[in-house]
């Protein structure tokens, strides 16, 4: 089982195309203009995004945007045995809301996922992204996807994805600040190719609750993009004016103090300098200090401060997720939201 395509419904596809292609280094693979919708396929050898905008009110994208801000509508999966999934759907009582016709090149079916998210499940074959030539990309694939759900829905959502797709819990987090908190579970597919994390707010003023209010329900909060060289990748993105969440200088003071205490000398002096300059987060386990997680997060990319991208490097095949980085991300988003007029966004939507 693998991720096939992430489908975005957005107000302005050309603006999103500019970010992903001109500033983040992905490829514009195709453009398709229909009577009511314009769609771009963007990606590279290892990932595929569909970016669709409405041309008029008859577009299905327009219907989505009446209910939600720009964001992810569908996370599509490629499976080796579609019939097995069909049997599971029947057993679990999950309705198929659409399916392939004889004219389609690939056999597929579509179901309602958690909240407004849909999942198109496709019989494995070459996707458009797989058919592109291998190029020297700074982004090498999708590392993980994060779904935000309402308070009390974390366990039911985890169980839903476990029962249907066989995802298992890899890690559990309880993140708290002096202002708010969240609970989270990191899921992984049995083949290890899909990481799917789920968050719920643990306080009424949590930034997860802010997302749910602005998105008008559960939805994909962010997608993490893999890179093999985050320092070079982020330096290039900075040069192209990609905006990232700011990290306080005190974070790096504490980080270097921890590294010295634990005698973690796996970064050069130059890399430490770049880490702070580019405001990249870093974490590691004391039991495997050579396995380093390096992460950075864009500011929200659409008209409403909901969805954002992450860029991640798993140095020396680092596994899972770091408590320290998760905490720092939560605090950074909390600070960002504090400085935004979120009530203004809510007023526009109401």
From TrEMBL:
<dbReference type="GO" id="GO:0006572">
    <property type="term" value="P:L-tyrosine catabolic process"/>
</dbReference>
<keyword id="KW-0560">Oxidoreductase</keyword>
<feature type="domain" description="VOC">
    <location>
        <begin position="2"/>
        <end position="127"/>
    </location>
</feature>
<dbReference type="InterPro" id="IPR041735">
    <property type="entry name" value="4OHPhenylPyrv_dOase_C"/>
</dbReference>
<dbReference type="GO" id="GO:0003868">
    <property type="term" value="F:4-hydroxyphenylpyruvate dioxygenase activity"/>
</dbReference>
<keyword id="KW-0670">Pyruvate</keyword>
<feature type="binding site">
    <location>
        <position position="310"/>
    </location>
    <ligand>
        <name>Fe cation</name>
    </ligand>
</feature>
<feature type="binding site">
    <location>
        <position position="222"/>
    </location>
    <ligand>
        <name>Fe cation</name>
    </ligand>
</feature>
<dbReference type="GO" id="GO:0046872">
    <property type="term" value="F:metal ion binding"/>
</dbReference>
<dbReference type="InterPro" id="IPR029068">
    <property type="entry name" value="Glyas_Bleomycin-R_OHBP_Dase"/>
</dbReference>
<feature type="binding site">
    <location>
        <position position="144"/>
    </location>
    <ligand>
        <name>Fe cation</name>
    </ligand>
</feature>
<dbReference type="InterPro" id="IPR004360">
    <property type="entry name" value="Glyas_Fos-R_dOase_dom"/>
</dbReference>
<feature type="domain" description="VOC">
    <location>
        <begin position="141"/>
        <end position="299"/>
    </location>
</feature>
<comment type="similarity">
    <text>Belongs to the 4HPPD family.</text>
</comment>
<dbReference type="InterPro" id="IPR037523">
    <property type="entry name" value="VOC_core"/>
</dbReference>
<keyword id="KW-0677">Repeat</keyword>
<keyword id="KW-0223">Dioxygenase</keyword>
<protein>
    <submittedName>
        <fullName>4-hydroxyphenylpyruvate dioxygenase</fullName>
    </submittedName>
</protein>
<keyword id="KW-0479">Metal-binding</keyword>
<keyword id="KW-0408">Iron</keyword>
<dbReference type="InterPro" id="IPR005956">
    <property type="entry name" value="4OHPhenylPyrv_dOase"/>
</dbReference>
<dbReference type="Pfam" id="PF00903">
    <property type="entry name" value="Glyoxalase"/>
</dbReference>
């Amino acid at each position: 089982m693998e991720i096939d395509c992430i489908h975005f419904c957005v107000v302005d596809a050309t603006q999103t195309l500019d970010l992903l292609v001109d500033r983040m280094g992905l490829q514009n693979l195709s453009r398709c203009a229909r009577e009511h919708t314009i769609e771009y396929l963007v990606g590279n050898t290892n990932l595929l995004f569909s970016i669709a905008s409405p041309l008029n009110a008859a577009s299905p994208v327009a219907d989505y945007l009446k209910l939600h801000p720009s964001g992810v509508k569908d996370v599509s999966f490629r499976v080796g045995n579609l019939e097995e999934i069909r049997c599971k759907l029947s057993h679990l009582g999950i309705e198929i809301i659409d399916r392939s016709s004889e004219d389609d090149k690939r056999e597929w079916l579509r179901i309602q996922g958690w909240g407004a998210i849909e999942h198109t499940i496709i019989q494995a074959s070459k996707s458009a992204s797989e058919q592109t030539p291998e190029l020297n990309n700074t982004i090498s694939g999708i590392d993980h996807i994060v779904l935000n759900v309402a308070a009390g829905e974390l366990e039911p959502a985890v169980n839903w994805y476990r029962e249907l797709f066989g995802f298992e819990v890899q890690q559990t987090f309880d993140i708290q600040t002096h202002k708010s908190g969240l609970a989270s579970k990191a899921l992984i597919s049995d083949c290890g190719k899909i990481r799917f994390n789920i968050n719920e707010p643990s306080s009424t003023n949590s930034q997860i609750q802010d997302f749910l209010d602005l998105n008008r329900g559960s939805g994909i909060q962010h997608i993490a993009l893999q890179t093999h060289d985050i320092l070079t990748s982020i330096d290039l993105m900075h040069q192209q004016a990609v905006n990232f969440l700011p990290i306080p200088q005190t974070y790096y003071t504490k980080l270097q103090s921890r590294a010295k205490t634990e005698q973690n000398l796996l970064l050069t002096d130059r890399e430490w300098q770049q880490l702070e300059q580019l405001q990249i987060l870093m974490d590691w386990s004391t039991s495997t200090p050579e396995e380093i997680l390096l992460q950075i997060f864009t500011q929200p990319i659409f008209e409403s401060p909901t969805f954002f991208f992450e860029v991640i490097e798993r140095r020396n095949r680092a596994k899972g997720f770091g408590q320290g980085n998760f905490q720092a991300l939560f605090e950074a988003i909390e600070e960002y939201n504090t400085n935004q007029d979120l009530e203004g966004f809510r007023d526009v939507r109401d």
